[in-house]
Amino acid sequence: MGSIHLQNVTKKFDETEVIPPLDLDINEGEFVVFVGPSGCGKSTLLRMIAGLEDLTSGKIEIDGQDVSAVPPAKRGLAMVFQSYALYPHMSVRKNIAFPLKMAGMDQAEIDRKVDGAAKVLNLDAYIDRRPGQLSGGQRQRVAIGRAIVREPKAFLFDEPLSNLDAALRVNMRLEISELHQTLSTTMVYVTHDQVEAMTMADKIVVLRAGVIEQVGSPLELYHRPANLFVAGFIGSPKMNFVRGAEATKRNAHTIGVRPEHLSVSRESGMLKGKVGVAEHLGSDTFIHVAVEGSDLITVRTEGEIDLKHGDTVYLSAEEDRIYRFAEDGRTIQ
Amino acid sequence: MATGHSRVAARIMISPAVLLLLGWMIVPLSMTLYFSFLNYNLLMPGVHEWIGFTNYEFFLTDPAFFTALGNTLLLVGGVLVITIFGGIGLAILLDQPMWGQGIVRILVIAPFFVMPTVSALVWKNMFMNPVNGLFAHAAAFLGLEPFDFLAQAPLFSIILIVAWQWLPFATLILLTALQSLDRDQIEAANMDGASKWSRFIYIVLPHMSRAITVVILIQTIFLLSIFAEILVTTNGGPGNASTNITFLVYAQSLLQFDVGSGSAGGIVAVILANIVAVFLMRMIGKNLEA
Amino acid sequence: MTLDEKTRTKIGFTIAAWLVGLLIFFPILWTVLTSFKTEAQAIASPPLFLGFDWTLENYFEVQERSNYFRHFANSVVISVGSTVLGLLIAIPAAWAMAFVPRKRTKDVLMWMLSTKMLPPVGVLIPIYLLFRDTGLLDTLTGLVLVLTLINLPIIIWMLYTYFKEIPGEILEAARMDGATLWSEIVHVLTPMAVPGIASTLLLNVILAWNEAFWTLNLTAATAAPLTAFIASYSSPEGLFYAKLSAASTMAIAPILIMGWFSQKQLVRGLTFGAVK
To answer: Where in chain A is the domain with CATH 3.40.50.300?
Structure first.
């Protein structure tokens, strides 16, 4: 239950094609994250799965059945919106009960299920309050409760944590991951935050301009990015890219090294540069080095390092940590 | 959100309104147009010949038409002048710090909600009547001859009555616009050393110009069709002194039963209104894009 | 006692504003006062402001002589009727335009508004003849139909602006929750739009109650609402100021009260959004 299959799916808004032909498989029980920069089509794709947007062509199957022409109400999916989209004139209880009421369930059954969901999500204390009286995190939980109670084939999340403050976001991330462990239901999650993607996903789908750049597990994408875009998108801080001599030496148009794989030395190394700003986070220090022929290079070092603004440094990396990219962006193996 | 389903639903949901309004526009209007080319008089049943533009010729060359046209312009112009200047003044007054602003607002707004026939009759009888009206009493108190408003200055009297009714509308709109003015701009002007009068001319008035234009356009559209006030006070008289185009068409159609001529007049009225409407629609359109 | 300049200005403006306000309101005040006088006192010279014998006789006489309440009921029927009918047609239309906007939506909306700008005389004759031939002349049904049509653009416009303030995502959530279109409108949209619908309702009742063209031309004794009934006082017999005042007071009182509540809606509804 809960496998989703997209075949040759395209989407046009007026005359602009925002999603060229796309294929994707989501397996039962997977936590799949659509990630990518603004405007890459990830939300549009999610809404097409939900049925809130039509396909221009192609088909979507859920559990083997073609649902391309089926309205959202009948697809058996539940969605959690970025703005939570709670019904402001209904109490928390009524909000969660609404889908069950639409399904024609009898009142006793509805009450049972609502109480169940409330318990799982710790909503008992404010079950009779209205959304306007709740905090962001509480509203988020009500939105999730409303989705859970339908026992859908899959959950769809549209950037649910974007409106929360940083600390709350970390907490909710864990709660949602826990939820996935408990329910084992398929979850399709859209975010622009690659940290959320890396920490929550079984499988990440990286999108750019409507095209799937790569599909894979978090570690696959981290260790074996298929192209320059994915390499630069996954991992924080961003991978450093260098062109010029060091690249041509290795038969590549561009080379890339992650900040955590660079080492600094005062004496010698692969690249020579001048120390710029150093950011001290306590556990790590990020040093930004100006190297000729490339953008600012970021280096991650542990603990304290005795380098001052303007000092000359040398940066090196192990060969198997250096990625090579061709002119069209593909990774050279 | 746009899916095939919702698009179909939307089309069905909007069609009653569209069909009804389309019907309301097209059917009667084309009938009026058709009648205007006929020799159709309700007093001569069975006679409906096509006479082309003859009705228009008669209507437009009738001296009554010119009087009515002039009266229409005077009516609209007169009311506009009173309501715009009065409205700006009142809006500024109501925007000042004072006690009981809410109640004063209610007092000023009230006339707009009085039905036109009541307004007209109250003014006609209890104020303007040369024997028993308050104005007559006031004149007597001052030792003057009472002035028979509706007989001696019918159009002016009607302008007064209609202006009284529409002043609240203009005031309300202009007050709303005034209160939407960013206080920051005024403070910046103060810092720049502007006097109260300069502030008014260079900041307040331009900001309100949009609202003023809207008030002018909307009032004009409705003022072209003033009817009830004329009907119950002067019936268009004496003679045609207080007849506007609307009343003229009414008189010819329902009093003289000259359907053909009345229809021609109706079409003329529609054309006049259209001219104003074009400008108003442009303003609304600009705002819808915003 | 010396007051600072701010307070002195405030006092000044207060006096000025109250004076102007009372001046403008005076005709209404005078009408209400006169309704409680005897006919003789109504035309007394010098005019009596408060010092007269208050009486309710006019109110009773107006009802006795001319069945006032029948006309009052007519006004109620046509105002409420045309408003309800208008809302039934307008709510779906406004839903469509607010939540499923297409390229043409703005044009359609503007066209609808433009139908309100048609001068009534342009269609007086056909409507009159049509009503005469179909037996709708001097009927409440006929009036309700006409009033619905002339105010429909405003109702649609106002509902459209209120609906646009509702986040579309909430309706999408309802769809995901399994709601049919009917459920979506009844259980989610309408409760959320209640304030907007109430405001529109109020404004439309006022507009229909005060309408004084079609109500004057399409009615006679049976279906005449208050607008037409009051018009009959334009050629009365004998002394009538006090009775006119009583009839007028009863006719305008409900609307004055409603008007008090609907000032903001007035701006929204009658300037078609061109003024915010």
So the answer is: 4-231
E strands along chain A, which residues? 4-13, 16-26, 31-35, 57-62, 65-66, 77-80, 154-158, 186-191, 203-208, 211-216, 240-242, 254-257, 262-265, 271-280, 284-291, 297-302, 312-317, 323-325, 331-332
Q: Which domains does chain B have, with CATH numbers?
A: 53-289 (1.10.3720.10)
Superfamily of domain C68-270: MetI-like (1.10.3720.10)
Q: The domain A240-332 belongs to what CATH superfamily? A: Nucleic acid-binding proteins (2.40.50.140)
**In this predicted model, what pLDDT tens digit does every residue of C26-71 receive, in sequence order?**
999 999 988 888 888 777 777 777 777 788 888 888 888 778 888 9
Closest partner residue to B121 (CB to CB) among C17, C171, C233 is C233
For the beta carbon of residue A119, count every other beta carbon within 10 angstroms. Answer: 11
Most C CBs within 10 Å, among B38, B69, B122, B243, to test the C interface: B122
Rounded mean pLDDT of chain B?
A: 86
Contacts of B268 (CB under 8 A, 6+ apart): B56, B59, B60, B245
The order of strands in the sheet holding A254-257 is A240-242, A254-257, A323-325, A331-332
How close does chain A come to B289, measured CA to CA in Å? 19
CA gap A320, B25 in Å, rounded: 78
Say if strands A77-80 and A65-66 run parallel, antiparallel, or are unpaired.
unpaired
Residue % of chain B over a pLDDT of 90 = 27
Question: Pseudo-torsion of CA B118, B121, B127, B133, nearest 10°?
Answer: -130
- Please state the pTM of the whole predicted model: 0.82
Phi/psi for B82 (5° steps) reads -65, -45
State the complex-level ipTM.
Answer: 0.85
Alpha carbons A196 and A153: distance in angstroms, whole number: 23
| CA-to-CA separations, A110 to A90, A105, C183, in angstroms, rounded | 15, 6, 18
Chunk chain A into consecutive blocks of 10 residues (it has 333) and report each block's average pLDDT, rounded to whole numbers. 92 89 94 92 93 92 92 90 91 93 91 90 89 90 91 93 88 92 94 91 94 94 93 90 86 90 86 87 86 85 77 87 89 83
What is the CATH number assigned to the segment(s) A4-231? 3.40.50.300
Average pLDDT value over all residues in chain C: 87
The number of C-beta contacts closer than 8 angstroms across A and C is: 60
For residues A102 and C175, what is the distance between their CA atoms, to the nearest angstrom?
A: 10
d(CA B246, CA B69): 10
For residue C16, what is the enclosing H or E element? Answer: helix C5-34
Cis peptide leading into residue C46 (ω within 30°): yes
A4 and C CB contact within 8 Å? no
Between chain B and chain C, the number of residue pairs with CB atoms below 8 A apart is: 316
Report which of residues B4 and B116 the model is more confident about. B116
Can you tell me the mean pLDDT for C68-86? 93
